Amino acid sequence: MSARSQLRASASSPILGAEISAAAARPMAASGVAGNAGSPEAMRRLSDALSNLKQLNIEPMLKKSVAALRAEDAKLAGDWALKALGVDERCGMAWYCLAIAREKAGDFKSSIQCYESALALSPDHVEIANNLGRLAYRMGMRDIAEKFFLHYLDRYPGAYEASNNLACCQRDGHRYGEAIESLRPAIQANPENPMLWNTLGTILTDQGEFEQAMPFFDEALRLDDGFVKARYNRSTAKLQLGLPDEALVDCDTALKGHMAEHERTMMQLARSTMLIARGDLAEGWTEYEARLSHHYPQGTIFLIDRLRWTPDDDIAGKTLLVSGEQGLGDEVLFANVLPDVIEALGPDGKLVLALEKRLIPLFQRSFPTAEVGPHATYDVDGQTVRQTPFVGDMERIDMWAPIASLLRTFRTEVDAFPPRPAFLTADPERVAYWKDVLATAPAGPKVGILWKSLKLDGARLRYFSPFDAWRSVLTTPGAVFVNLQYGDSDAEMAEAKARLGVELWRPPGIDLKNDLDDVAALSCALDLVLGPANATTNIAAACGANVWLISTPAPGPSSAPTATPGTPPRGCSTPRPASPGRW
Question: Residues 261-273: what's their mean pLDDT?
């Protein structure tokens, strides 16, 4: 089916409804915002603006700055802009040139400040607003970005790039109907624009409609076979449809194209997931190291001034510092490798383990020979920075590693996952305590449930079932459902009682978000834990509790949630389920 036909046919979709039908016959753009402050067209418009400058002594400096931007020399461009500002610090065009130069150099904080100064001094040059919005979007400030795109569209209502960028903000806020309505005029006016078809595809994939999105990515590539963003987006959709081999072909083709380094890093992360999905664990974990690249905007900077471990290093008899990374649930998931690491260190070696502080009691009990302490994590200008101050004298550390990097040595094939029933140890006294407490609940199997994550931004939302979808589970005869949902769950508990007549039993005296050692014990005392893959289910499975994981539906006619009985097979560790990124 063609993309245009698919647009019309999908009007019956229960998720998209009439919005997609209204979007018929129009193409879409990449998931990320479109536009480039240093593009040839942008430089042409900037040069035109410079011709209207009154200060003849500044114009030559700014022309040299623009020439340097065209030559991709951000430093020289910035130097000439600063010279112009030295003559007149209230020259908006000089601030604009400096903003572009700082953005090209990767200094986003300074760049956004320069854009703001440029807009204040040159309000009539509204393209500054579009670039400011684009940079704000890239830095995660979606609400601010949306205001700037609206400001630009108020002046230029037919600007398809700004319409696309506005739609991206709305899509990321789960306002899918609004996103399509923002795209409508741009698509009607530019039906042969591949960017717009691509964005429509990303609106569908954000809702989990991967098969329906495929014709739109196909159409974008029909219009422009070299459109790397559309090819990458199609590859991630194919992965979600259970086609890792086809996904890898598209991803590898996309990686041959021209792109910014942060985009290339995102694609490499997606490629690692595809490799792992098809069983190529050794290459997959190697590619997964892209998460540590300084080009990866969501990556963590580790301030650890010691030798970085590599798979070629023999750790026997060494003192190895291992730092947890990513989210709390990921720290638990990747910890399946720690028993192997301790064995490789041997009796003369020492494991020093830096973790999220809520995990320390559980991990210290589980690995009594290790030294366990909290890592310190900060947000510095939108970048996650992590240190390990509890270590003290770093000279005693022979080498260090982010925890997931160890998989390159200890999990290079499926058979390398040992058949352990557990790799963490819940407090046996607290397990006994919770069994006694659960005995006071109504009779029947005690099933702990949780249904959401406190982080549900962007595409991550599709991995968690809405509470309404739990009706058939909660009405199971004879089962007693125990609330394990951390955070505010009062509304859902009240809904279950009012609409279904089901009262979720609340375990007394436990902080489900912060007292993770007791959460581990409670999970082991239950007959079953049921929920999506998150910190709680990861802890429960790691401790050997009986866990059924809720996963997204497999490709096919059924859209019902899938429950996978049992603990994760053989301590399996995989990257976080969310797509590494899309445009």
Answer: 92
Phi-psi sector, 327: left (phi>0), alpha (psi -120 to 50), beta: beta
Q: Are strands 547-551 and 562-564 parallel, antiparallel or unpaired?
A: antiparallel
Torsion of CA 412, 418, 422, 425, to 10 degrees: -80
Question: Considering the domain boundaries, does residue 183 fall inside one?
Answer: no
> Rounded to two decimals, what is the model's pTM?
0.76
Residue 305 shares a structural domain with residue 406: yes
Of the three residues 361, 396, 416, the one that is the final residue of a domain is: 416
Helix (H) and strand (E) counts in the chain: 26, 12
d(C-alpha 286, C-alpha 289), whole Å: 6
Q: What is the token pair recorded at 40?
A: 């040839």
pLDDT at 55: 59
For the chain, what is the domain count? 2
**Does 354 reside within a domain?**
yes
What residue has token string 């720290």? 331
What phi, psi does 334 have (nearest 5°)?
Answer: -75, -15
Q: Where do we find the tokens 């951000």?
A: 74
Distances, alpha carbon 281 to alpha carbons 28, 341, 414, in Å: 35, 18, 8
Per-residue pLDDT tens digits for 377-407: 998 877 899 999 999 999 999 999 999 999 9
Question: Does any domain span residue 348?
Answer: yes
Is the pLDDT at 582 greater than 90? The verdict is no
CA distances from 12 to 6, 18, 58, 215 (A): 11, 7, 59, 16
pLDDT at 544: 97
Q: What's the CA dihedral at 303, 304, 308, 309 to 10 degrees?
A: -120
Taken in order 568, 572, 578, 582, the sign of the CA dihedral is negative
- Show the tokens assigned to 59: 């114009």
Give the domain range for residue 333: 300-416
| Whether 364 and 479 share a structural domain | no
Q: How far apart are CA 519 and CA 540, in angstroms?
A: 8
Contact 484, 522 (CB under 8 A): yes
Burial of 128 (0-12, 13-18, 19+ CB in 10 A): buried
Domain presence at residue 436: yes
Residues 211, 243 contacting (CB under 8 angstroms):
no
Q: Are residues 399 and 462 in the same domain?
A: no
The per-residue pLDDT of the chain, averaged, comes to 84
Q: What is the pLDDT of residues 455-480, one digit of tens each?
A: 545 455 555 667 777 888 888 999 99
